[in-house]
Queue: 3 jobs
Job 1
Amino acid sequence: MSSDSDKRRNVRTLVVCAVYYSDGAFHASGVTENLTTSGGCLRGTHLVNVGMELLLLLIPPTQNALLVKKATVRWVGDSLFGVELSEETSGTIGELSDEDLERLQGTASFMTH
């Protein structure tokens, strides 16, 4: 019998898409392994530490990019790490139009691919 603390808030869905992440001091890229509205698992090129707050740019293959202004690292294992999106950050998540993405790419080189 599992306790309530062992259960995730949402079922994780396999979502594979490009992701760029940054804490302001570094910029890195990777891919998502799974994702929900409250968190997910990422595989990245730059090691992170538990407690870090990251900006994420998710780029699904068939949709507009999704900007997440605050994702908190909750666990780390080699190149994999888990992030949590809290209720307070859910209001800062929004889709970017193609025009917004082009503008951001011109000013932030880590967002190009």
Job 2
Amino acid sequence: MNAGRKWSEREIAKTTGVSTGTAHYVCARLLGFKYLARDKNNRITLIDPLRLLNRWAAYHQFDIANSFLQYHTFEREIEKVTQEIARIDLEYAATVLTGAWLAAPYVRPVDLYFYSRDEDTARRIATKMELRPIPKGGNIRFVIPYDQGVFYGSQTLKGVKVVSNVQLYVDLYNFPARGEEAASRLLQVILEEWRARRRSSQHV
């Protein structure tokens, strides 16, 4: 969610990796809800990114939308686990309280969550980390996403791949075990990023 930037539908499609038809449909819907506006050059901009973000977050159910593979580690030091996964060159991205602990430390997670491209990738990462598969109650959970778009805008924090702050906020919003608290703290980081981007665009 790049607040303040003006886009063409083609640019949106290219950046997000969707078809131009999909980009047109989504933009039309958001224009209808007045989340977006077009200027005289037919370029699109977000009118109220915070309202759109909160609407998306309110409807998103992380536990229901995704599927999970559970593993167990006897290692209790989060830092050691994250250092270990940071060395693995496969596609993953930390999310919910794991991502929040890296992006805006507030709540120290008990269980660690990482998006993985697919089940095979998750199993390969688990093998490299010598994790033990477990039917339930695992303290490391690989999340197989409902949509590969969760990786859009991923960042690297302390050497660990983490979803974008916007995706992280959406995942945290309805997440139990203090997810709402972590989301609230992360929102301040997002708003400051948007303000900085807006100031930068005004001086271009």
Job 3
Amino acid sequence: MRATSLWGVLATFALIFEYGCNTQKTMYRWGGYDEALYDHYKNPQKRDEFVVRLSGIISEAEKSGGAVPPGCYAEYGWALYEEGRTTEAVAYFEKESKQWPESRPLMEKLIRNASRAKAPAPAPPAVPASAPEEAKK
């Protein structure tokens, strides 16, 4: 084989390899979800940042038409549940269950538990100490 033919073949393989690597698409729109989750587990005190990042990841994926990564809806739903926003949490648990059927048993349990959770009762109005005794009752 001539040297020029060998170089031509190698150049062709190099281009094919580079083309194949550059056009590889991922299955999900990760958007930094894996890094956000790792950071959250390392630094749980930065929970608010984590929740904001999850919200951004979900909205970017939905806006671009990409698939939200597995667990992202559930993680965000759990964050909402911890904040007492059970109705919104249930909506995200349902999204996770719909998009990832293998998570359905866990999501159904979370939905059931969130539906049972009661919203915190509003605090009674404060009565000033100078009010008559009848108003304090």
